[in-house]
């Protein structure tokens, strides 16, 4: 518990040495800062939800950067199983080696996953379990034991048969965490998560940034440019107008706004060219805010008035 209290997430995007990360500063609102520090202190996983582009996935990296801790990442797929995050055994390679007359111990084929490495780590680290709702309904509950007990067992290993070399390399049948990793779990709400899993997590919903925070994020992530504050504010306002159209496959978010503002700056776009009276599809370079052609077409139709109220 004392170790948890010693770590303090500030949400200013700066490392212990005062440096901003390679992807720019992650500015967290005060409520998010509080819940991160609660999760650190209590040793509980933090479940984060929110709209695409709100910074769910980047949060774990921001925590690791600010606290000066290693970051381990587990990107969940529809085929993922809980044991994959702990360890996998390359059975196919082992069979091929046997067919070729090669004989290696089982430990030769064991590969630890992100969760396994987090629980084996000699010191505290940050673990990201990204998009947990992509996996099966059983997946979250299958993680409960390891997250609760902070330990896991390699069932296929025989402790008594481990050689001195394997023991020296750190292999054992059961691993128990010396310190609880800081676990950040993200979900896109594609499916409901089990109540038993939710009870063990702290929860936070990251809303899309308010205008003032959005402006601060853009400026913080464009430090090398002398951006006019009025340009950033106006672009943020117009982004909110675009997002209000709704119905997009992927709404433009913070990263798209940063790119757009930097393009407007480099191209010397005048403030009047992105004014309130300019139609959305008349905004300079508005198309770079979207990742899908159908979203570009939707905005163009909306600006022409052909699908309003649809």
Instruction: Return the CATH class of the largest domain.
Output: Alpha Beta
> How much strand?
5-15%
* CATH third-tier fold name of the largest domain: Rossmann fold
Count of distinct strands = 9
Mean pLDDT: 91
Largest sheet: 5 strands, parallel
Taking strands numbered 1, 2, ... along the chain, how are they ordered across the largest sheet?
A: 2-5-8-1-9
The ordered string of helix (H) and strand (E) elements is: HHEHEHEHEHEHHEHEEHEHHHH
Give me the CATH superfamily of the largest domain.
P-loop containing nucleotide triphosphate hydrolases
Q: Count of DSSP helices?
A: 14
Shape: elongated
* CATH architecture label of the largest domain: 3-Layer(aba) Sandwich
| Percent of residues in helices | 40-55%
Low-confidence residue ranges: 1-5
Quickly count the domains: 2
Q: Supply the helix-strand structural class.
A: alpha/beta
- Estimated radius of gyration: 24 Å
Distance between the termini: 54 Å
Polypeptide structure, described:
With 310 residues, the protein is an alpha/beta fold. 40% of the residues lie in helices and 12% in strands. It is elongated. The model is unreliable at 1-5 (pLDDT under 50).
Short description:
This protein is of the alpha/beta class and 310 residues long.
Give short descriptive properties of this protein.
single chain, 310 residues, alpha/beta, Rossmann fold, 5-stranded parallel sheet, two-stranded antiparallel sheet, 14 helices, 9 strands, 12% strand, disordered N terminus
């Amino acid at each position: 518990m004392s170790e948890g209290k010693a770590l303090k997430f500030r949400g200013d995007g700066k490392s212990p040495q005062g440096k901003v990360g390679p992807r720019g500063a992650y500015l967290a609102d005060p409520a998010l800062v509080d819940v991160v520090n609660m999760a650190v202190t209590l040793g509980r996983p933090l479940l984060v939800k929110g709209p695409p582009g709100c910074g769910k996935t980047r949060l774990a990296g921001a925590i690791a950067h600010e606290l000066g801790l290693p970051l381990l990442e587990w990107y969940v797929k529809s085929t993922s199983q809980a044991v994959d995050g702990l360890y996998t055994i390359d059975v196919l390679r082992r069979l091929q080696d046997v067919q070729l007359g090669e004989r290696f111990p089982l430990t030769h084929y064991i590969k630890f996953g992100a969760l396994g490495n987090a629980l084996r780590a000699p010191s505290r680290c940050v673990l990201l379990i990204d998009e947990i709702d992509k996996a099966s309904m059983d997946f979250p509950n299958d993680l409960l034991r390891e997250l609760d007990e902070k330990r896991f067992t390699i069932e296929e290993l025989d402790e008594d048969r481990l050689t001195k070399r394997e023991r020296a390399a750190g292999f054992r049948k059961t691993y128990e965490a010396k310190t609880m990793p800081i676990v950040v779990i993200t979900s896109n709400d594609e499916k409901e998560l089990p109540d038993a899993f939710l009870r063990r997590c702290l929860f936070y919903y990251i809303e899309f940034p308010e205008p003032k925070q959005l402006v601060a994020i853009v400026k913080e992530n464009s430090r090398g440019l002398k951006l006019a504050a009025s340009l950033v504010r106006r672009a943020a306002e117009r982004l909110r107008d675009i997002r209000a159209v709704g119905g997009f496959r992927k709404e433009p978010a913070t990263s798209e706004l940063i790119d757009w503002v930097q393009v407007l700056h480099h191209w010397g776009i005048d403030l009047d060219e992105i004014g309130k009276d300019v139609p959305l599809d008349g905004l300079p370079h508005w198309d770079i805010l979207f990742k899908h052609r159908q979203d570009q077409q939707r905005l163009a139709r909306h600006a022409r008035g052909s699908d309003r109220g649809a």
